[in-house]
Amino acid sequence: MTQPLADLPVYAPRLADETMEPIGHRIQGYAHSQGSRTALTDERGDVTWADLLANVNRIANRLRDQGLAPGECVAGLSENTREYLALYLGTLVAGGCMVPLSGMASAEALGLMIRDCGARFVFVSGKNLALWQDVRPGLDLPDDRLVGLDTDGVGQTLAQWLGDIPATANPAEVTLDDPFNIIYSSGTTGTPKGILHDYRFRQRQMVRMSRFGLDGNAINLVSTPLYSNTTLVSVLPTVFNGGTLVLMAKFDAHRFLELAERHRVTHAMLVPVQYQRILAEPDFDRFDLSSFQLKLCTSAPLRAEVIEEAMRRWPGNIREVYGLTEGGISTCLDCAAHPDKWASVGVPTEGAEVRVIDDNGRALPRGEIGEIVGRAISMMRGYVNRPEQTEEMLWTSPEGDVFYRSGDMGKIDEDGFIYVLDRRKDMIISGGFNIYAVDLEKALLAHPAVADAAVIGVPSEQWGETPLALVVRRAGSRETEADLLAWANGRLGKTQRISAVEFRGELPRSTIGKVLKRELRAPYWEGVR
Questions:
Q1: Which of 37, 120, 430, 454 has the fewest CB atoms in 10 Å of its CB?
Q2: CATH number, domain at 169?
């Protein structure tokens, strides 16, 4: 990292007499107290706690043996695998900062992320080898700092890199202020923003989520990728408490149901589109899902009709969690307890406060619509190397407390329940992934035939919503909608790709020149709840 962690202020409230048991220390005991018990299972079989901890400690010892200093970054580009989980935990045991990278990002964006965080090591899975080969030329890293988790096409294989390093347990001493992980936002233009979480953020989050039953008895089916904060919210407390993870490398609705029945799954964190796909499976009612205690949902509001169907057909409660990867805003809806509030995202969690402000930064009374801002016990330290962008996110209350802006428009009802109504910055959430319209628009506007462009989210049965590009061609151009679609998508990450291009004679704009996206969206969302 170019910007030292010490330069980043702590926005989270200080808690008196707060103690911490770092996850790297906590898990060591499981090698002895439950060494033969299953820590994780995947398509290759079970891994016991004893075997997992041996792999974790060997990785940690090798990282330090090769010079990893406290707080330095280790980047990983992989789907969910036993090796990747061991790397994640091994980095923490070594005192490093984990940087999970998205295999759906473009090669350019990945290179920017790796350079931005100053990663000392990069680990890559075979599934991402082709993408990695496009990233590698732009990096100034020696081959002995590049490791293939399950492939020999990246520097060294994991086995070669580990050599004969011992599995001695020697977890690093860390404090609440030390870096835990950096999660990068998506983006194709400019450097994506690196969201820095410290141990304070994660420790408090793990304790809070443990109260939802993510304890030593939990069997947690993980079907979203480890580079997403959505996934870490449930994975980390399960590991911290000695529970069991069932890893899916790639989500498939039918396979999810098979694994849930086979392993007697108790918990799962899902995004809205996954609920829709699972419930739509023709064989859904044939599976025994009676072991489920709780299903969590985040990344986008879960529609009331989907909650109703899931509560009726799928055993166990649903808790919808609304928040930001940055933290600050934290609400939860207990669907069993509040069936009359399913259109909301619940109430603030313990230690959290949510307000709604107008365009001038004034707090609004309940019932009025404005931007949602929040303050919670878990708040990021800031965007790495981007103090200006960090500052833009802050709102200070009249009492002098720092809140984070959500970029979402919403309201608070008379009972204190929060409703998310729109996205202030035109963010599109497709299949659980955040897509920023400006990135897609910049890609389109780079084409010489495009005079103007706007990207909006439109309804999608498959993805919840999907990006649609509305384009004004330059006079005399002959490119078709299909031509521009293929050109733009060839320059975007997989999760950012545009579903269709439609030509328009002009785009509606305000008197100050802003595209009126609400006007553009309205016909597509008419009649959609």
A1: 37
A2: 3.40.50.12780
